[in-house]
Structure formats: structure tokens, C-alpha cells
Amino acid sequence: MSREPPLLLFEPEVIEGAPASGTLEPLGEQAFVLRGFALPSAPDLLAAIHEAQAAAPFRHLQTPGGLTMSVSMTSCGPLGWTSDPKGYRYTPFDPLTNKRWPPMPPSCLALAQAASRAASLGDFTPDACLINRYEPGARLSLHQDRDEASLDAPIVSISLGLPATFLFGGHARGDRQIRVPLYHGDVVVWGGVDRLRYHGVLPLKEGVHPVTGAFRYNLTLRRAG
Ligand code: MD6
Ligand code: FE
After folding, report:
1. Which of 19, 79, 108, 216 is least buried, going by the fewest C-beta atoms within 10 A?
2. Does the pTM of the predicted model rise above 0.85?
3. Which CATH number does the domain housing residue 107 bear?
4. Is residue 1 assigned to a domain?
5. Ligand 1 centroid to 200 CA: how many Å?
């Protein structure tokens, strides 16, 4: 049987080497890649990252197991995600500066709401935006996102800069994973029955992106409180 053609969300825009912009690719029943969905907002999002990092610098967090994460992180919005030898949690204050996290930029909020609607996951008002910065070699090992108080809200994840390979598995750590290439401007949205699926990011390959240089950025918006 032939597959349905992908659903067009908006007028396509071409990026070299990347799948066609404007397509909605299913990863699960309630998990999708929205190709190129963040391209129109990319300049605003990158300016927002720049502003956030001036107030809340990127840092390599320690895991409860005592390892240093290869991805550097910061946050914006009312709640920020943090990790140290005592555990993972969301906090209203940045432990590095003891100040509130920088505000969530309107461009992030608007994009998260639009992406959730485009994926038929309903109204979404995130209160936390985790900002990940990958340099070549940085990776994120297989995990579930389960530190949020509202597990019924979806997660919206925006990729900017160098491409990465995203691993998307099942509900058990050992379940088979699919490999999903993510490019500048792609948005992953998942919720509902897929909300607790294991996922990770393979080590970032060396490269130079015209907009972000040697980095990949990922913004992950959640309802944490
Ligand atoms: C990343 N993303 O793409 C890491 N988590 O850099 C995540 O860990 C993630 O993309 C939950 C939902 C979507 C994600
Ligand atoms: Fe995650």
C-alpha cells in the first residue's frame, strides 16, 4: 500500500540537504517532526538565546551520578531545569546567579503554541524553556522527560544550527530506537501517549553552520509547574 503524502503546513522553503520544509512527519501516534517550522522565527530565537546567555550563562551541569554533561545548558522562563549531584529539578532561580531565569521571549512562546496546535496537541502554555548548546562530540544519552509536574502537556523542541541525529525509542530503555536527522529550523512536538518515550541525541558531528558556526542549539519548551 502506498503511503499518504506528507501534510503541508505552510509554503515550503528549501534548505540544502534537509527534507522539504513544511512537512509534518509522524514519529508516533502523538509525536511529529515539523520540518522547517521554526525557520521564519530563527533570527528572533537566536537573538533570544544570545540575550538569555548574557544573564544566565551556559554551563556543563553535573548529573546525580557525578558525571559532567557534554551538552551545556541554560534556561529561560519562570522555571529552569537544573541538575547537580542531589538530582534533577526545576527551580525559579538560577543556582549559578541566584537570580530569576531570564524571561521567556515572546517568539519562543508563540512558536511553541503554534507548533502544538499544528500537531493537534491542543493549547500549550509552556513555563520552562531549556536551552541546550552542543559542540562537536556533545551528546545526550537516552532519557525520559519526567521531571515536569504536568505530564499531560506536550513538549516542543526546536533545533537550530548544526544538524544532529535524534534517537526516538519506546517506553522501555531497551526498546528499538529510530534515528531522526534534525536540521536548522525543525521542530519536534510530542505529547499524549508518546510523552514518556525514551530519546537522546548522538554525538554532534564537526561542522560549520552559516548561522550558528560550530554549534547546535536546542530549545525545549515544557509545562514544568
Ligand atoms: C535535543 N531534546 O534535541 C534534546 N526532550 O537536543 C530532548 O531531550 C527532548 O527534543 C523532550 C522532547 C523533545 C526533545
Ligand atoms: Fe528530553
Report:
1. 19
2. yes
3. 2.60.120.590
4. no
5. 7
Is residue 2, in this structure, part of any structural domain at all?
no
CA pair distance 213, 225, nearest whole angstrom: 34
In a domain, 165, yes or no: yes
Three cell numbers, residue 57: 550563562
Number of domains in the chain: 1
Residues spanned by the domain of 46: 7-222
The answer to whether residue 13 scores a pLDDT higher than 90 is no
Exposure class string for 163-175: b at 16+ Cβ within 10 A, else e = bbebbbbeeeeee
Note the pLDDT of residue 1: 45
At residue 18, the pLDDT reads 74
Whether 188 is in the pocket of ligand 1, judged by its Cβ within 6 Å, is yes
Ligand 1 contact via 82 beta carbon (within 6 Å): no
| Atom in ligand 1 nearest the alpha carbon of residue 134 | 6
Tens digit of each residue's pLDDT (9 = 90 or more) over 28-56: 999 999 999 999 999 999 999 999 999 99
